[in-house]
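User: Hey, my collaborator sent me this sequence without any context and asked if I could get a structure. I don't really work with proteins. Can you help?
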Amino acid sequence: QVHVVESGGGLVQTGGSLRLSCAASGRTINWYAMGWFRQAPGKEREFVGAITWNSGSTSYADSVKGRFTISRDNAKDTMYLDMNNVKPEDTAVYYCALQGLMFPANDVHNENKYAFWGQGTQVIVSS
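Assistant: No problem. I've predicted the 3D structure and written it out in structure-token form, which is a compact way to encode the shape of the chain:
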């Protein structure tokens, strides 16, 4: 059993910063990537960004590129999302998810490729 837990959400003013954390624990598997997704009220869940576990390659949605940064600490099995210059449209529940090695190919943008999900952490950006 693998557990994924997000933390760090809260209320932040427009233009401010916030750091989210995602810790994974439990049965060790060959992880390919960890990803961040978000879901705003009345909207579908969308891809925010992801990081591959071995190489540290990152990928971001256009809406957050240049403002959000993903990093990881392999020793702690933890991923971080540094949110800078936040905007009201960043308000959402943020989810962390874990993707294992897949064949024939992985896809960090596809939420259906992620096997384990956290419970989510709420981020509210006030204007």
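In plain terms: The radius of gyration is 14 Å. You can pass these tokens on to your collaborator as they are.
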